[in-house]
Amino acid sequence: MTSSRTASTLRDVGGLAVAAGTLLMVTGAGAWFTVTKQLRDEKITVPPNAPMLAGKRVQDPVTAYVEALVIKGNAERGAGGRTFADISAALRGVDGSSDEARELRNQSSALSTAASLRTSLLTSVLAYGVSALVGGLGAFFAIAGFRLRRIDER
After folding, report:
1. φ and ψ of 57, to 5 deg
2. Helix, strand or coil for residue 46?
3. Is the pLDDT of residue 43 over 80?
4. Which residues, in sequence order, are CB contacts of 80 under 8 Å at separation 6+?
5. pLDDT tens by residue, 60-99
6. What region does 44 belong to: left with phi over 0, alpha with psi -120 to 50, or beta?
7. Range scoring the smallest mean pLDDT among 60-69, 105-114, 134-143, 145-154
């Protein structure tokens, strides 16, 4: 059995944990719904060449990740399997005004655009993860706080 003063302190800490937990759950849910709304507003659809979820609207972490994978694959195919480093090295070895140089610059530009799109989508996936973590921690704090509030109630 705990002393009256200790029990009172634990109940106070429990109240703070419930308040903090509630705030974290609301914040996590708010972030999740905000990211979902932002993705929906972009009206992105997973293309037919996706390994799964083709034709689905990008509006959650799974569809955003699949879309990022598709963009990477399409960009790699469009650049003939070349990387930025490969293209840069090839550009140094050709006449800057040649058709080959123009094609290499186009491939470099396409890779750059794809990298930017993938980064945005993967940032959304990360934001979903952080919002789930925050909400989960909030639930943990709220449950622990409720238990602390019930100290010496039997």
Report:
1. -75, 140
2. coil
3. yes
4. 107
5. 999 999 999 999 999 888 888 888 788 888 888 888 788 8
6. beta
7. 145-154
Question: Measured between alpha carbons, how far is 36 from 21 in angstroms, rounded to an integer?
Answer: 23
d(CA 101, CA 19): 61
Determine the length of the chain: 154
Number of H helices, E strands in the chain: 4, 0
Spell out a b/e string for 56-69, using b for 16 or more CB atoms within 10 Å of the CB, else e: bebbbbebbbbbbb
* Contact indicator for 140, 21 with CB cutoff of 8 Å: yes
Which tens digits make up the pLDDT trace of 11-42? Answer: 999 999 999 999 999 999 999 999 999 999 99
* Spatial separation of the C-alpha atoms in residues 57 and 45, rounded to whole Å: 4
> Using CA atoms, how far apart are residues 83 and 114, in angstroms rounded to an integer?
12
pTM, two decimal places? 0.81
Q: What is the DSSP string of 72-119?
A: HHHHHHHTTT--HHHHHHHHHTS-TTSHHHHHHHHHHHHHHHHHHHHH
